[in-house]
Write the structure tokens for this entry.
Amino acid sequence: MTAYYPSWAILIFSHLIYTALFAHNSNNMTYLFAVTLLWAFSFSLIGVYLAGQVDAWFSVLMRIGLATCVFLPFLQWRKTPKALALKLMAIGAVQLGVMYSFYYHSFLYLSVPEVLLFTVMTPLYITLLNDLLEKRFNAKFLFAAMLAILGAVAIRYEGVDENYLIGMLMVQAANICFATGQVTYKRLMQDEQLPHSRVFAWFFIGALIVALICYGLFGDTSKLPTTTMQWGVLIYLGTIASGLGYFAWNKGATIVNVGALAVMNNLLIPAGIIVNIVIWNRDADITKLAIGAAIILLALIINQKLNKTAME
């Protein structure tokens, strides 16, 4: 693979992003777009410096613990209604704590490409869960989600083995948890008057409780970080990627429609691959990447147009 292919991929991807996010008056996508770029680096950092070297449960505990510390100083303990605090803790427990439990165990049954393939169902769960809560069927959101899934599959499909049913179900459970957290946070906080930053620590506290339990049950104390780089990556992932990242992502979820939220979940896949190619020079099918990214961003454009038309 020559050095020119990643450059062309970046140019195509950047142009599509500009078209989708700015040419269609989509400034409300700023939060999700920024976190997409932020999390694009996280995949490679985990794969290069942590996976197989540091206990996964310890990594999860560190990330959630540090993220909690970031928002604890801003938490308004007495001004937060108890009902709101409990709901935020429950959302964090599901979206991060339980999700990670299923996700990391799925690697015992699936290869990495299989796990990545099955994660593309998250947008579908977001749209279906929202429709279930709204007690209605929204065809345009479902169409946008299915188109985004098609784009992600175009990038990541490499075939699967026969004995993947258990692992597949675990990944789907993780997807459902992540989708549930996004949809319920959006519904809970989009009209909330309290600043999100003043109450978001409750979200991480809920996730931290689950992480502590899981590390106590499944953690391997013999595989702790041993290098400055590993500790540095964990600190970055905890404070920036998890702390600021999940705050900005969930806040962004409250100001976009459900279709756009569903599509943006799969935009992470091509973004992560591009970062991996350019910085760590990993092999990837550039043709699949370009096609998949184009389909995902087309889904975003279609969703934005349909939503704008519906509002006129």
Summary: Confidence is low (pLDDT under 50) at residues 1-25. The two ends are 48 Å apart (CA to CA).
